[in-house]
Every structure is written in structure tokens, then in C-alpha cells.
Design a protein that fits this description.
single chain, about 230 residues, alpha+beta, Arc Repressor Mutant, subunit A, Chorismate lyase, 6-stranded antiparallel β-sheet, 3-stranded antiparallel β-sheet, 7 helices, about 30% helix
Amino acid sequence: MLGWEAIRAEVLRRIRARDWPPGGLIPGEEALAEEFGVARATVNRALRDLAEAGVIERKKRAGTRVAELPVRRARLEIPVIRLDVLGRGLAYDFQLLVDRMAPAPVPVAARLGLPEAAPMRYLETVHLAGGRPYVLEARWLNPGVLPPDPPDFSTVSANEWLVTHVSLVSGDIAFTAEAASLREAEVLGVAPGTPLLVAERTTHGTEGPVTLVRLAHAPGHRVQMVF
């Protein structure tokens, strides 16, 4: 059964495709629940998230409409990890650990609004600060956003290339504290189960979904956000 994130992604796709134009009514919760074969509460959660983001407007007895002028609740710049490290006065380097094409796992495809098992490029990169592991980046990248002659991500990090070459229009980010997996422990040089700050982000561009990335930071990392 579809989760609320997949419903949210599909509603957002239809809005971007102008299936539901700005100011237009969208189907009610009951109709959407029947179409997607989910509980009404699942649809409600997806629409509530879009309303909080300013994408749609919900009013009692007036239905749900696509916002005429979407309101951004907050604006977050996607950082270039290299510049973050240099800004801390440390030498920067990175190593590309994995680069392969693979079918997108169901949760990844659902969050990005892509077909199940869509071919994607999977990258694992460890970013180094002062010669020590700083961030493990695990990224699912939509190959459709890449040029015919794609960049060599062993010489330029996907993080920096995407920020500087792809026009990003929307996305979401979540921060969690999680226990280091065996893979994260191996790469970051910590014991399995060590608490890590994890940021998971999805982004969409003008041509559709771009990437889902998980950033596992070495212990002691601090994030500062400016509004």
C-alpha cells in the first residue's frame, strides 16, 4: 500500500504538470483515497504536509485549491560540503566509493515520484576534513538530470556538481539522530551503533525529480541554519 509520502509526491507531480493549475480545485480526500487505494487518513497526511509547505490551500466547506502564489515557509540553501570544510579551516578531500546503476528501491522511487524500480545512479562518497572522515554521502540520482556526457564523480563530487549545475525548485529535508550502521561505522571509523547526525534530503528540479541523498555525519558535527 502507498504511504503518505508517495501520495504527496504524486499530488505534487500533478500540480507541477498543471493537471491542477494554480487556483484550481483538486479532488477531495475521499476521492483521492479511493483512487490510490489508501485510507483517507493517509491522504489527509499528504495534503496537510503540502498545505504546511504553502503549495495548496485548504478551507472548510471551500475545498482544497492549488495555491495561486505558493508561499515558502523557509528557505534553506543546500551547502557545498567542500566549502563547509574549508570554512572550518580544514583541508578538504573526497573519495568516491561506489558508482553504479541500479533499480531504485521502492521507498526511494515513491519519495521521488518515480516508477517502481526505475533505473537510477547510486553513489557513495566519503568527504574528508583534515584527512579524517567527515560525511558519508549515499545518493540515489536520477540519470535524466545528467548531460549526455555525464561528469566524472571521482573528480568532482555529486554534491558540488548538482548545486552548481542543476536548477533546484523544491525539496524536503529531515534531521535525525541514528545509530551508525555497519557500513557507516566502517567508513567513518566509529563503532557500530555510535550516534550519528543524519540528514536525508530529496530535491526536485525544473525537469522533475533529481535526487534522494542521505548524509551521515561523523560524531561531533554541528549544523547551523540561518533564516
